[in-house]
Amino acid sequence: MLRDCVMRSAICFPLTIYYDASCPLCANEMRALKTADTDGKLVLEDCSSPAFDDRPYACHGITREAMMRLIHARDAEGRWLRGVDVFEAAYDAAGFAALARLWGHHRLRPWWDKLYPWIARNRYTLSRLGLPRIFRLLTRNAARRSASAAIQACSAGTCIPDSKMDLGRSEK
Q: How many CB atoms lie under 10 A from the CB of residue 13?
């Protein structure tokens, strides 16, 4: 796979995301992002498995426990992201530009940085309370808005190729 480096954010793809696949909320979100990732920019790695080996990351101070505490990702150049930075990069890579901007918004970011660790600590309870359904609605609505915008653009004579409309992908 060729490396795709994005200069704006200094993320080089593919971006490997280490997440808790045993958590319904986490698994649902990552599955939706991977489905939308038609360019193959995201690689998902389940760090919840007892067979997961964190020894290759020890030299970076990254452990399985840390990955289970907060989501982690590593880009193609070996740079590590953690927490909210992962979500911003992953949503952007999957074509959900508006949601990525929401994660990275300068006024909201301090709130996300405080809220996300709480969500991560309580992810199993939040999963039982139905948060995965809310996430599905968010991504489905984002996809519909992007598809609607693409249809309107086509009507105006500036079509976006079909591959860019899949699952709400926006032209980058």
A: 22
